[in-house]
């Protein structure tokens, strides 16, 4: 297995040179986080990845989780991994000091979480799913719920989940049927079924705390009648944990992530499942969207982390595997060259690097906006950061998931036949990453969200702010002779996106929503390419500045950055032209093809 899975140097470059994230310490909430604090946090995260996560990545796949005699058994190393993350303060990290947290900037926290995901997303996901659930309780739960549930979740003793999906209601949450009936004791009795619940039950923790959506008896129909509940596997009675009538009927046999279970839960079969209302009744869906949006960024990080592990595995192989000779050399008596000497192999490696490091740039950019939205006292800056984060979230989730899958597939191609065999990790990375395009809403759902909601949000202000951010970067690039042509190229591509957006908005005013939204997924892809192009231009600016004064040992890093940047602009950015042509076409083949014609 490859000895490396992530570049901490790249994280430092993005945080310090591109985003200047330590300057967030000018905001009172983050005043303790100077560059030294960032360095210490990154090193601490890498140590946990090296010691507790990466060593069991392949073992968790080969010795997969299983359900037997009512118990979900997982790899024994998972418990130690969760505890190491918890004891390092990472689950509690974003919370306030007064609640035992570290008030850590999200841009730093998620850079460190990226290290964990690159080392072993299947293990690390347990801890950060718990983090999201605890944050939801902190945001909307009463003092009693916070006191009872958050400390053992922060300690890594209890697992948190989000329990939404039901057999008859996938992404259509307005159709859930799990019921809640208020009792005279003040709690609710819940009854129903939940499926595909990640981390929904396992032997590495003492209890599982489900943040569950259900419908209170007599509630309004649809989304307006959904409430949010804390539903533990075990409830506390007289200081002891007793069964809460939440049972696991089985776990799903997933394509990948064999050590990260997806459970099927039966709730209240004995009419003894107690649930505790979080916040006001019928406000469950808006509340749950806090955790879902956090999980969407996390899904993008997970996909990018997995693609990072695959990239470094394929890069190592390419530097060690001799095969063939250059096309100009026909002398079979001469030694074979390492495959990285072949231009097409370098193309594949540059593709992987461009996707991984471009995606990570966008994700950390989103986290930076989240930090501003959380901590700045400037009302206008806070609103703008919030709008940009909302607009970019569906892209930050979907682009790394979709393109990361292609990147890992390309990594398998670098290895050739070896990549398809389980002697090497690429086939596991490929199986593991595929689910990220499905987690927290399929890519199609996010296309609908972007085009149907986000670009029109605040009368189009979010989209305008995004284009302004891109233009600011372009103007800076065009002051540098080496980057001027690329700035002009991105200007044309961004203008094409704006024109396409206007075209689709006009279509929405004239035609039925089905016509406007038919190719929303393509629009998401288009927007994603522009967003990653913007991030690569930002990285190129920083690399050019650093290269001028770089020492010999660091020069290769910046040259590598500029090579991946040029690759993206040469190979990926031009793809927008084909997408733009399709989005402007009046041919409505998907709408006009009848279901019975698809045979």
Gap from first CA to last CA: 44 Å
Largest sheet: 5 strands, mixed, barrel
What structural class should be given to the helix and strand makeup? alpha+beta
CA radius of gyration is 24 Å
Question: What's the number of domains?
Answer: 3
Please bin the fraction of helical residues: 55-70%
Written as H for each helix and E for each strand, in order along the chain, the element string is: HHHEEHHHEEEEEEEEEEHHHHHHHHHHHH
Tally of helical runs = 18
Query: Average pLDDT value?
Result: 95
Strand content: 5-15%
Shape: globular
- Please give the order of strands in the largest beta sheet: 4-5-12-7-6
Strand elements, count: 12
Q: Would you identify the regions where 5 or more consecutive residues have pLDDT less than 50? A: none
Describe this structure in words.
Helix 8 packs across helix 15 (520-548), helix 8 (343-375) packs across helix 16 and helix 12 packs parallel to helix 15 (520-548). The model has no long low-confidence stretch (mean pLDDT 95). The strands form three sheets. The chain has a five-stranded mixed barrel. Helices cover 55% and strands 11% of the residues. It starts with 7 loop residues before the first helix and ends in a 7-residue tail after the last helix. With 599 residues, the chain is an alpha+beta fold. Strand 4 and strand 5 (188-198) form a beta hairpin. The chain has helices at residues 8-18, 35-53, 57-62, 77-87, 106-140, 143-154, 284-320, 343-375, 379-415, 426-433, 443-452, 461-477, 484-510, 513-516, 520-548, 552-572, 575-583, 589-592; strands at 66-68, 71-73, 158-163, 179-182, 188-198, 207-216, 226-232, 234-237, 240-243, 246-251, 262-267, 274-277. The chain is globular and about 80 Å long. The chain folds into three domains: 8-153, Orthogonal Bundle (Butyryl-Coa Dehydrogenase, subunit A, domain 1), CATH 1.10.540.10; 160-283, Butyryl-CoA Dehydrogenase, subunit A, domain 2 (Beta Barrel); 442-594.
């Amino acid at each position: 297995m490859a000895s490396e899975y992530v570049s901490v140097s790249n994280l430092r470059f993005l945080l310090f040179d591109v985003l200047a994230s330590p300057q967030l310490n000018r905001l009172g909430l983050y005043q303790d986080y100077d560059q030294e604090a960032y360095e210490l946090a990154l090193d601490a995260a890498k140590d946990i990845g090296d010691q507790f996560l990466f060593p069991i990545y392949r073992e968790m796949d080969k010795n997969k989780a299983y359900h037997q005699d009512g118990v979900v058994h997982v790899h024994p190393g998972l418990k130690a991994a969760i505890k190491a993350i918890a004891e390092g303060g990472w689950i509690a990290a974003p919370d306030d000091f007064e609640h035992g947290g570290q008030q850590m900037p999200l841009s730093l926290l998620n850079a460190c979480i990226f290290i964990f995901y690159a080392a072993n997303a299947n293990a690390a996901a347990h801890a950060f799913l718990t983090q999201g659930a605890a944050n939801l309780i902190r945001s909307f739960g009463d003092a009693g719920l916070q006191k009872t549930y958050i400390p053992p979740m922060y300690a890594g003793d209890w697992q948190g989940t989000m329990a939404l999906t039901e057999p008859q209601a996938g992404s259509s949450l307005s159709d859930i049927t799990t019921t809640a009936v208020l009792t005279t004791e003040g709690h609710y009795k819940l009854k129903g079924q939940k499926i595909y619940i990640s981390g929904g039950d396992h032997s590495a923790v003492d209890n599982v705390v489900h943040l569950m959506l259900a419908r209170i008896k007599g509630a309004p129909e649809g989304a307006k009648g959904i409430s949010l509940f804390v539903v533990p596997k075990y409830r506390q009675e007289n200081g002891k944990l007793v069964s809460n009538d939440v049972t696991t009927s089985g776990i799903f046999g997933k394509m990948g992530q064999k050590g990260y279970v997806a459970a099927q839960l039966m709730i209240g079969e004995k009419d003894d499942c107690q649930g505790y209302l979080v916040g006001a009744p019928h406000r469950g869906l808006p509340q749950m969207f806090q955790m879902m949006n956090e999980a969407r960024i996390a899904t993008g990080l997970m996909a990018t982390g997995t693609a990072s592990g695959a990239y470094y595995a394929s890069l190592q192989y390419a530097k060690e595997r001799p095969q063939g000779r250059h096309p100009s050399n026909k002398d079979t008596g001469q030694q074979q060259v390492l495959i990285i000497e072949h231009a097409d192999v370098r193309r594949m490696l540059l593709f992987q690097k461009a996707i991984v490091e471009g995606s990570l740039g966008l994700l950390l950019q989103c986290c930076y906006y989240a930090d501003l939205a959380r901590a700045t006292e400037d009302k206008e800056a806070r609103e703008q950061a919030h709008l940009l984060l909302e607009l970019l979230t569906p892209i930050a989730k979907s682009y790394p998931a979709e393109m990361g899958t292609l990147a890992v597939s390309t990594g398998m191609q670098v290895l050739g036949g070896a990549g398809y065999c389980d002697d090497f990790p690429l086939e596991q990375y490929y199986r593991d990453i595929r689910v990220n395009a499905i987690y927290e809403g399929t890519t199609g759902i996010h296309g609908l969200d972007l085009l149907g909601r986000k670009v029109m949000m605040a009368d189009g202000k979010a989209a305008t702010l995004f284009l302004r951010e891109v233009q600011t970067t372009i103007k800076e690039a065009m002051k540098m002779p080496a980057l001027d042509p690329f700035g002009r190229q991105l200007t044309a591509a961004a203008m094409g996106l704006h024109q396409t957006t206007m075209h689709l908005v006009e279509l929405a005013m004239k035609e039925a929503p089905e016509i406007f939204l038919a190719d929303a997924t393509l629009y998401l892809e288009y927007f994603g390419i522009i967003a990653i192009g913007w991030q690569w231009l930002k990285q190129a600016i920083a690399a050019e500045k650093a290269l001028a004064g770089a020492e010999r040992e660091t020069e290769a890093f910046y040259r590598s950055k500029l090579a991946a940047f040029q690759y993206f602009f040469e190979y990926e950015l031009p793809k927008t032209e084909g997408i733009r042509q399709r989005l402007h076409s009046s041919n409505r083949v998907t709408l006009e093809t009848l279901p019975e014609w698809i045979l």
